[in-house]
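> forwarded from #structure-qc
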């Protein structure tokens, strides 16, 4: 029989079997590959940033329009007693923008502060901050 370069079928099957790894070897390779695939990649984290203080943190004191119950019978600097007094708008524009005519006034030239009586005749009394830090919106 002349040689044609063809391999008999039996020999071709034998070569294919020889190239294929055995079943336990395939399992080991598959296990190693899946183990690598399951392992999460390491992520580089940036160093934590230092928080800068807010611009309003430097300003201290009461909020404008804050009402407080204080134990003394006089208004401290920047505060007014809550006795329903009339305040002119041009001189207290920021406070007017906060409370408007909630407690009274005409809204054109004047507005009123709240009228809150003391807890007892001897105090403590309510005061409202007419000067201070503008609250955040």
């Amino acid at each position: 029989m002349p040689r044609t370069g063809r391999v008999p079928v039996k020999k071709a099957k034998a070569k294919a079997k020889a190239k294929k790894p055995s079943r336990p070897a395939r399992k080991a390779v598959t296990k190693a590959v899946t183990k690598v695939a399951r392992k999460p990649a390491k992520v580089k984290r940036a160093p934590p940033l230092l928080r800068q203080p807010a611009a309003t943190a430097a300003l201290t004191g009461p909020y404008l329009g804050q009402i407080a119950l204080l134990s003394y019978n006089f208004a401290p600097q920047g505060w007014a007693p809550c006795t329903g007094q009339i305040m002119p708008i041009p001189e207290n524009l920021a406070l007017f923008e906060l409370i408007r005519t909630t407690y009274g006034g005409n809204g054109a030239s004047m507005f009123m502060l709240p009228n809150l009586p003391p807890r007892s005749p001897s105090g403590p009394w309510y005061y409202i901050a007419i000067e201070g830090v503008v609250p955040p919106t």
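QC bot note: The two ends are 99 Å apart (CA to CA). Strands lie at 67-70, 79-81, 86-88, 110-112, 125-129.
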